[in-house]
Amino acid sequence: MKFGVVLFHTTSSAIRAEKEATRSGLSCQMVPTPRQFSSDCGFALKFDWSDESQVKTLLASKQIGIAGLHRLE
Amino acid sequence: MIYLDNAATSWPKPPEVIQAIASYLEVAGGNPGRSGHRLSLAAGRIVYDTREAVAMLFNAPDPLRVVFTMNATHALNIVLHGFLKPGDRVVTTSMEHNSVMRPLRARERDGVAVAVAQCEKDGTLPLERFAAALSGSARLAVVTHASNVTGTLLPIRALAELAHSAGALLLVDAAQTAGAVPVDMQAMDIDFLACSGHKGLLGPPGTGCLVLGPGVDTSQIKPLMQGGTGSRSEHEEQPEDLPDKFESGTPNGAGIAGLGAGVHWVLARGVEALRAHEMVMAGNLLEGLKNIPGVRIFGPMETTDRVATIAFTVEGRRVSEIGWRLDEEYGVLCRVGLHCAPAAHHTIGTFPEGAIRLAPGPFTNQADVKTALNAIQRIVTG
User: What distance in Å separates the CA atoms of residue B272 and residue B278, rounded to the nearest whole number?
Assistant: First the structure.
């Protein structure tokens, strides 16, 4: 299975995104930010790449600012 | 012992609050938002859950616009020092606490113009006086939701409309109402809501918050402090991200955990139900005090127009003597004097002697009120 990660500028945003995603029934997990993707926030949100569009829609609708969204190879 | 000083800080606290504080220190204890390990994340989640609970309580749309502070004073100072600039005009009322008046007087020396709308002797504010004070221009209006002296409620929705039509944002000091009176930031059109965490929200001292409405452009507010936030650490400039911009340094995580438990306790019971209980206590106190000879009550006699905080004096008697005897002889704890609100005491005509203030809370019962009234009766007539 392919995964993606969302990076955030603040841990508060990461935790908010995790909560909102879980509430929307999306499967996700907080992971330490992969070092290849520079982000100051220690946590990133890992999700199933098949949910990419739902994750993007959710982040936009909840106005949660992100520092990046990447596919994990 | 009968505790009638909930307007200063609430006591006792629900056991859940004490457990949440202990549990944070025992099992969560990392630095929220700083490190990438499980204890930091556990702490971060507790702090975030409290933001969400606070946002829910006040019907604020974005939990990330809930800024934790040391107390209501800190929250008010962020806005009064950070938002107002020299040349700005700010409007307030004559019932404010020194947490508003002292920062405003300090800002006057920086060139901020301060206009005070005069309230009536019962603490109510005629809308036309507020409108008159706003006329011309104003960038901010700051008003208490309820007086910490007389308990008088101000009509926030109407004041917001007047402030907005004059081009001003509205800052509400909800120290006396958060958790005790329904506060809906969207329905009341509040731009900035400042409150303490240790009063009606039943959290520990050292907690408070500033909730920023969606219409507030936070790039226009200079933070009181700059420092580490755990975010954008590559920059030596303060980040604009919320709530980080206004939360430099390690937060009071244990206190915020306790505050979260307090807010959940309030949400579970419902603010309307808590208010109904306090209004029964207030009604009994007002009725009882009215029948004691020489007692003069300040503030509205109708419970619909007030919170449960009641101020009174006794003809020919020192308030300090009555307060001391209530504590010493009857174990009734209240607060006498000026209550950090000289403006309010000037308004109601009790400056400089002050008044005796009774402030029941969610754990006050009818027997407590009866005992307190009997004690006052004996001291006054004895």
Answer: 10
Q: Do B51 and A12 touch (CB under 8 A)?
A: yes
Model confidence over A21-67: pLDDT tens digits? 999 999 999 998 888 886 677 789 999 999 999 999 999 999 999 99
* Spatial separation of the C-alpha atoms in residues A31 and A43, rounded to whole Å: 6
Q: Is B306 on the interface with A (CB under 8 A)?
A: no
| Angle CA B155–B10–B100, to nearest 5 | 45
Distances (CA, A) of A1 to A25, A26, B302: 18, 15, 66
pLDDT tens digits, one per residue of B326-357: 999 999 999 999 999 999 999 999 999 999 99
What confidence score (pLDDT) does residue A39 get?
Answer: 61
CB contact under 8 A, A11 and B243: no
Query: What pTM does this model have?
Result: 0.96
Pairing status of strand B295-298 against strand B335-337: unpaired
| Contact (CB<8Å) A10/B35 | no
* Contact residues on chain A for B233, CB-CB shorter than 8 A: 40
Three-state secondary-structure class, residue B245 = helix
Among B48, B62, B229, beta carbon nearest to A15: B48
Candidates B52, B63, B231; nearest CB to A10: B231
Q: Over the stretch B100-126, which tens digit does the pLDDT of each residue have?
A: 999 999 999 999 999 999 999 999 999
Three-class DSSP labels, B284-313? HHHHHHHCCCCEEEECCCCHHHECCCEEEE
Q: Does B278 touch chain A (CB under 8 A)?
A: no
Query: Among B97, B96, B279, B98, which Cα is nearest to B180's?
Result: B279
Which pLDDT belongs to residue B233? 80
ipTM of predicted complex: 0.89
Residues of A in contact with B239 (CB under 8 A): 9-10
